[in-house]
Each structure stands twice: as C-alpha cells, then as structure tokens.
Amino acid sequence: MIPKVSWGIDIGKSSLKAVKMQRHKETIEIQAVIHVPYQNMTEGVASPDEINRALTELGRRHKIKAIDQVLVSLPGQSCLIRPVRFPPVSDLDQMIKVEAGNHIPFDLEQVEWRYLKVDRQYAPGEEVEVMLFAVKKEDVTAVKYDLRRAGIKCDGITIAPMALFNLVKFEMDVPDNCVVLDIGADHSDLVVMEGNRFFVRELPFSGNDFTREIARKYKTSFEEAEKVKRSNLTGQQAQNLFAVIQPTLRDFVSEVHRSLMRTQSAFERLVLLGDASRLAGIGKFLAQQLDFKMQRFRDIMRMELDREVDIDVLQQHLPSFSVAMGLALQGLDAAKNNLNFLPVEEQGAAERIRKQYFILVACAVFYVLLIFMWIRQSGVNSDLENLRASYSKNLDEYKRRGDKKLEKSDFNTLEEDCNKLANLVGYRNSDIKILDTVVRLFVQKNDSLPNSLVKPKEKSIYELRQDRIDVSDEMLKENMNQKIWLLEYESKIVMEKEKGEEENEEAPLKRFRRITIKVAALVDENERETLKRVIKEIEEPLKKALDVKRLLVRHEGGLLQAPWLHPDAFEGKFRMPKPMEPEAERYNYNMYKLVYREELK
Fold first, then answer.
1. Domain-by-domain residue ranges, the chain?
2. CA distance 22 to 331
3. Where does residue 16 fall: left (phi above 0), alpha (psi -120 to 50 degrees), or beta otherwise?
4. At what angle do helices 349-401 and 408-445 cross, to 10 degrees?
5. How far is CA 240 from CA 217, 229, 231, in A?
6. How far apart are the first and last CA of the chain?
7. What's phi and psi for 400, nearest 5 deg?
8. In the CATH hierarchy, which top-level class contains the domain 1-81+135-171+301-345?
9. How far is CA 409 from CA 159, 175, 400, 413, 414, in A?
10. Tell me: the pLDDT tens digits for 530-573?
11. Residue 588 φ then ψ, to 5°
C-alpha cells in the first residue's frame, strides 16, 4: 500500500511554517520542516501578496503530490465555539442538527459548522456535552483561494487552537487539566484543556506588542526593534530588555487570569508555545505570576526524524512549528479531534487518489505477471511438444514395422504413457492459448494513447505539450469509450460433477480445469448492446483460440462506478488520474464473467 503522507501548513502573520509527516505502520516520521520568513511586512504583518509568494515558494521547492494530505489552519478568532448540553436521546446527531441554528448566531447557509461530543463517562440521565464550531464560508474560501493561487491543493481546514490541542495530546506528557499558551506574532491563543473538554480564547497580546514597547523605549523603528527582540541577548542586556516588556506581560497575565475564572478545574501545568515564548525570562515570569509549573516544547519524543530533516531549523523554531505539526498529525488520522471545515463534498480527495493509484499499480503488476506466466509457460510447452512429438513418432514407427522384439504388454504400456503425455500437453495448451489470447486482446486494447497522437519532432516543447493536451482529450475519450478492462484472471483444477448431474448424489466427481476471466465494459445505450460488445470483442476471439463452440458468459450484476477509467479523469503530460469533482458524472461499467471448463482425463 502507498505510504500515507501529510502536510501541515501554518500561514502565520510573520512567517510560513510547514511540516511534512509520513506514517509507517504504527510509527510517525517527520520528513521535512520548512520555515519561510516574510520579507515585506508592515508593523510585523505580511501583505496577501507576500503570503502568496511564500506559499508559491513552498510549492515550488517541496513537491506536494496529489496523493498527499494537505491541511491548513484558520486563526482561533475566526471560529465561534459554543458549549451546549443536550438530553441523552438515542438520535442525538439529528437533534444537534435541528437545534444548531438556535445556538449559532449566523445564517447556517453562510457558515461551515461542525460539532464534537465530549468523550467522557456520563451518569444515567446526565445531559451530553457538545461543542459547536462555526466559521464563515468566506474565510474558508479565502484560505482555499490562497492555496490554489500557489498551486497547492487543500484536503482539510481546521482552527489553530485545535491543532495545538492535538499536538499536545499526542506528543507531550501533560496532565488531563492544563493550560496551553501559544504566543504568536499578532495574537495569542489560550487553550484550556479539561480532559477531553476544552475551550479557546484569543488574547489581545502578542509578540508584536513586545516589539512596539521596545521600539517606543529605544525610539527606533519596528523592524529594528524586532531584530533586537530576536537577537538572543544574555546577561544585563537581556534583563534590561525584559524590564521594557514587563508592563505588557503583567497585563497579559491579568487577561489569562480572567479567562481561567470561567472554569472550575484546578490547573498546575502551563505549556508555553510560539516563537515569542523563546524571549529570555518570559517563561519564568508567567509561571511565577500564574503559579503554574511551566513546560516548554523543547524536543520530539514520540515521533521519529528523517535524516533529511533540517535539524538547525527545527531546533531554532520548534515552538512555532506546533500548529503545523498538529495539522500534519490530523492528516495522518493520529489526532484526538479531526475537526474539518472544508465542505464535506470536497473532503477525501487525496484518499480517493491514493486508492486510484493503488488500483492502477495493482493492474500494472497483474499485467506484468500475466505476460511473465505466458512467456514462462510457452517455453515449457515447447519442450513438452517436442517430447510428445518424439514419442509419437517412435510409437508410429514401432506400429508400422511390427517389431517382434516388443511384447504386446510393453507396446500397450508405451502407448498409454504417450497418451497421458499428450493429454498433459493438451491441458497446458488450453492455458497457454487463453493467456496468449488475453494478453493480445487487453494489451492492444488498453494502450494509453493512440499512435495518431504522436507529434512532429520539429515542434517546440511548448507547442508539443499544448497540442498534446488539446488533441488527445477528444481522441483519447473516443478511444477509451469502447474499452473493456480486465479485472481478474483465474485458472485452477476443481472437482465437480458433470453438467446436469449436480443434483444427483450418486454422480461421481470429476477433475475439471476451470478458467475464469472477469472484465468490465463501459455501459452502452443499454445492457444488451454492452453484452454484444463483450461477446464480439472477448468471447469470440477466446472461442476461436480454444476451438470451442461457446463460453459461459455471465453478467455479474450491479454497476462498477469507476471515474478513473474514463478519459475525463486524466490530465497533464503523463496523464495521471485526478479526483473527480463532486458534481461530475460517474461512468458506469458492467461486470461480466467468462468461464471455460474442460474435463481432465
């Protein structure tokens, strides 16, 4: 099976962070970490064009495949979160859908809303805790547009606090009740975790506030103050810098205190994340003022690192990769919560492509194996034919001459052995003839492109590619509409009764060779026409090869919906499959089984 790969992309206000992960059975491996700082910013915030430049650079330098999962985050402030209690009815999901409009202060047609049931033990008759989430569709469309401009697809959209929650639950050893504080460039996210229940609040304090205080104190520009803040000062210089931002930190602590007053739980642990958390003295100050034990994200404990990972980048920016890592974990189905605001009809595209790739690879391996068997058996058959011919020639010679040295019993034994050998070759012949016919039929019929699509060499690469796309779509569509696809080939020896004797308990079992071929044909105007095409293109050549009057052709029933077998599902120079749009037509294939049986003497 193709390994599952996931990308988490955190579009921050000061830089772009991305993490690539891959699942190997029960192990998750970090394969790449990318940190792209924005170049042109105003007051620490990048313009949309600068964000697009960073995304484009990410897509250009690090090839993101169509089968990879790609998840991106929205800021917590863009999401409405409402805890709601519902009676413990049997059809809780339906009740939530009916009552959601009473708790979400927006037109449900204008938002993407989801819900999570709090997973815990409930007393008999106790109301069920449910968390409602809603984001505006325009925010979802905007982030999809940013990715599409950069040539990056999107498989999932969640909120940054949810990604933080998933990372902490997976990677860090923390108590059930703890507080996560992610200090970002333009805002800070406070995630209060109470077991599997959590609430989120965005705090109006950030790393840029510290930078502004430094700029005001030293009467310098924002950009110069940012450089000072990131310069990793030590000793007296670090103390002086901390004294400048301390008033802002005190307001910050007061805001955290007010947020925690909403809960009844006791907290002992503060998990500090985000780039600004690396400022000297900030962790110790927050731990003392909040009376919490402080825990930083300093090392990777439960995930493995690929040899190609840039360790310097990871160590320098590890706290700021928290959101991207949580997103990548969700793409690998390793997250505690899988909240996804992407429209439901657009979800699962990467997984569908993964399955299509697997089917295509399996078909390719099957065809290679089929050809190999044919070549191998052809060689064996040739030797047996020569041996049989030699025995038959000698036997005929002995019969003609009536050699008196041979006793009658010897003569009969030799004749019996030759007949057995002839029958053995005959049995092999049936398999070889069918294999040869099947290989010729399907390899010829299922060429990827007709020969007429080959373009003159004197054309430029650009013209050649343009002509190939423009011409081949129509011609390939016409070519593939009439295709019949080989799904299965099976040859085995079975013990069965003669036809018509199945109900006779005294009828003896006999040895038969049964060859089964299963095919799929694109449905024509009606099933009768499709069956005629299968008979003409598959059954007739096989009957001729086997020298039999008829084969048993069965319609398997049902339809195989296989959009990847149709030319509309192919694109690009190499004509690889792409996911069908939700509203696109699915192409139906009828499945037929052709059965040939012969008795083995």
1. 1-81+135-171+301-345, 354-446+483-599
2. 10
3. beta
4. 150
5. 11, 12, 13
6. 43
7. -65, -40
8. alpha beta
9. 90, 91, 17, 6, 9
10. 888 888 888 888 777 777 766 666 666 545 544 434 433 333 33
11. -95, 140
